[in-house]
Amino acid sequence: MALNHYDEKSFNEALAQKGLLLVDFWAEWCGPCKMLGPVIEQLAADFDGKVVVGKVNVDDEPELAQKYGIMSIPTVMLFKDGELVDKKIGVMPPQEFVKLINANL
Amino acid sequence: MGYDVIVLGSGPAGLAAAVAARGRGKTALVIGNRWQASPLAKAEKIDNYLGLPGRTGYELLEEFQKHAEAMGVEFLVGRAISLMAWSGFTVTVGADMVQGNALIMAPGVVRQTKFPGEQEFLGRGVSYCATCDGMLYRNKDVVVAGRTPDAPEEANYLKSIGCRVTYTAPKRPEALDEGIPFVAANRVEIKGEQMVSAVVLDGQELPCAGVFVLRASLAPTDLLPALETEGGYIKVDRAMRTSVEGVFACGDCTGAPLQVAKAVGEGHIAGLTACEYLDRKTT
Q1: Potential cystine with A11: which of A6, B85, B131, B167 (Cβ 3.0-4.6 Å)?
Q2: What are phi and psi for residue B22, nearest 5 degrees?
Q3: What is the structure's pLDDT at A48?
Q4: What is the domain extent for residue A71?
Q5: B202 and B244: one domain?
């Protein structure tokens, strides 16, 4: 499955599913977020069928950003069965996220 | 893809590294503050730089800069706010993003130590990037702890997008928007529980949701946590290699003596080693 772009409704639907959900909170005006973009795409491809990967644009979805206490972007959150299990703030290479995912698969 | 060599830092070490790389036919981009803002520019007299005794720091920097420009070094004025080592190196400077195949760190020494609470609340109310995170603080109280000549502009930007800004520094900067309240303070402490709730400025507590800490440069280990350090300086070998492949360091950031002559020498070596690294990678 390709990379998902969530609004509030589709995000809540994804959250209601069993399994792992990795979400990148980002915005157009954020340089580091652009830098992280290709990493998230890579993860979506590498973990296809194992982890649902998606993005939330905090400009379009300020309520979601507020709800999850996003204070700095990019922030990447990992949910398992709808529960937040970990989050990473800032830019990091794919292997950091791979570790995070593998620890929770 | 992008540049052969990206240099972080526009002082003598960074410029020497970039010039050495250009000498080997590599493309080089220097990211840093305006050279006029370098602490060296304020040095009244430098008497130990071989062959050019008695020059001011300003004069030396001006010559170095001209030399680098004449050699075709490119410049990007600004502060690197994040760095990723993945298929080369990607650096963000404000909203710009640049890529390179080798990275040379020459940021000088970060003269300020971190504020109490700064590390603890990074990403939970503490931010180093107004353009990145400003929008998340619209209609909220934020404090800008400005420690660079460009910091007032960033504070003005935060105000323009709707943050309620208070600015703190030892002295009110002229470029600060007149509508921004100013608190003169030397000591800054950041407090909170889960998130930032207040700053303490010379003992005076001020509630806020966010603190933007704006210094001349981020610590190299904030940009690249994998970098090994020793006694607060970046650990390098004689060829100026750091613990991270493809990353080299030179100048004050590698340790004493904090002198122009040493910075230029190390910069030259770092530039050459970076070129060797690139040549080995492509053959």
Answers
A1: A6
A2: -65, -35
A3: 94
A4: 4-89
A5: no
Domain of residue B132, residue span: 126-214
Residues B11 and B89 in one domain: yes
* Cβ-Cβ contacts under 8 Å, A69 against chain B: 194-195
Cα separation, B144 vs B127, whole angstroms: 10
- pLDDT tens column, B21-41: 999 999 999 999 999 988 899
Residue B159 sits in a domain whose CATH number is 3.50.50.60
Question: Position B237: which residue type?
Answer: D
Length, in residues, of chain B: 283
For testing contact with chain B, the best of A71, A75, A95 (most B CBs within 10 A): A71
**Residues contacting residue A8 through CB under 8 Å, at least 6 positions apart:** A61, A63, A64
Structure tokens of A87?
């989050």
> For chain B, how many structural domains are there in total?
2
Are A71 and B124 contacting, i.e. CB atoms less than 8 angstroms apart? yes
The most distant pair of C-alpha atoms in chain A lies apart, rounded to whole Å, by 33
The answer to whether the pTM exceeds 0.90 is no
Distance CA B28, CA B282 (A): 17
Are the beta carbons of B151 and B211 closer than 8 angstroms? no
**Residue A48 lies inside a defined structural domain of this protein:** yes
Compute the 3-state secondary structure of chain B and give helix, strand, coil in percent, each to the nearest 5: 30, 30, 40
Whether residues B168 and B52 share a domain: the answer is no
Q: Residue B112: in which H helix or E strand, if any?
A: none
Marked catalytic residue, from A21, A33, A39, A52 = A33
Contact B95/A70, CB-based, under 8 Å?
no
Query: How many domains are there within chain A?
Result: 1
Is there a contact between B120 and B191 (Cβ–Cβ < 8 Å)? no
pLDDT digits (tens, 9 = 90+) for B69-99: 999 999 999 999 999 998 899 999 977 899 9
Catalytic residue among A30, A85, A91, A98: A30
* CA dist., res. A60 & res. A33, Å (int): 15
**DSSP conformation letters of A2-63:** --EEE-HHHHHHHHTSSSEEEEEEE-TT-HHHHHHHHHHHHHHHHTTTTEEEEEEETTT-HH
What are the start-end ranges of the E strands in B138-249?
A: 141-146, 164-169, 182-184, 188-192, 196-201, 204-207, 210-214, 229-230, 233-234, 247-249
